Amino acid sequence: MDLEIKKIIDLHKIDLEILEINDSKGALPGIIKKQEEQKNSLEGSLKDSKKELKSLDKNINDYSTQATDYASKIKNYNDQIYSVKNNKEYEALLKEIDFLKGENKTVESNLSDSKDKKEKMELFIDDTSKNLEDLLSKLKSNLEELKVISAETDQEEKKLNKSKDKLLKDIKNKNFVSSYLEGNQSFKLAALSRDACSSCFSSLPPQFILNVKKMEELFPCPSCGINLFWEE
Questions:
Q1: Judging by DSSP bridges, how do beta strands 189-193 and 227-229 pair with one another?
Q2: pLDDT, tens digit, for every residue of 89-139?
């Protein structure tokens, strides 16, 4: 058996063991990853919403101050009407009062809109906070469950990964190593089983089987293209 071929086959077997360990964890890792992404999204949305709420509070305060100021000025001008000496002063006061009322109407409209937006934003923040709290509870539960499951396999997985790293360093075919690390499908392996490919179960011709059993190189299955090896 070619030594390089043996190392590649050993690497394949380690991958199968690691895959089996990951399968034992079920869908939990994928669920946890998705929940963590949702958590980050909700936290980001909550942060932005609170920032917007703070801005709305400032606007409401500013508009309220402006409305109070306009109301005070309008009252003062109305009081002055009774002391005017001629029509020119009277018309000037009325013109100023009408202008202030127009400005005040705009401010009050902005104030009303800001209050409506604040109310909706508070409801959104409340709902988002509840959703985040519920998600965090589920995430914590799943992490604890995964921790229990992983406790039984962590040491074995670390040992396998250590052996895997060593094999990758020992394999002289750097093109294979590079393609393997990139996930190149052309380097997938399957064992020869009962004179057939264990991946696609296609029967193989006798001479092809003999070539595979020599273990001097890897031969791709004529049907599915996966690299075949002989396991005694």
A1: parallel
A2: 999 999 999 999 999 999 999 999 999 999 999 999 999 999 999 999 999
- Alpha helix locations (H) across 152-217? 154-170, 174-181, 206-214
Cα 196 from Cα 193, distance rounded (Å):
5
Distances (CA, A) of 87 to 76, 78, 98: 18, 15, 16
Exposed/middle/buried for 75, CB within 10 Å: 0-12, 13-18, 19+?
exposed
Q: Is 192 left (phi over 0), alpha (psi -120 to 50) or beta?
A: beta
Question: Does the model's pTM come out above 0.70?
Answer: no
51 is written with which tokens?
Answer: 């920032």
State residue 192 phi and psi, 5-degree precision.
-80, 125
Helix (H, G, I), strand (E, B) or coil at 136: helix
Chain segment 43-99, per-residue pLDDT in tens: 999 999 999 999 999 999 999 999 999 999 999 999 998 888 899 999 999 999 999
Q: What is the DSSP letter of 203?
A: B
Among 127, 134, 146, 117, smallest CA distance to 54 is for 117
Set out the domains of the chain in order of their start, with CATH numbers.
28-152 (1.10.287.1490)
Q: Report the distance separating Cα 222 and Cα 220, nearest Å.
A: 6
Q: Which residues contact 21 (CB under 8 A, 6 or more apart)?
A: 153, 156, 157, 160
Q: Are 231 and 213 in contact (CB under 8 A)?
A: no
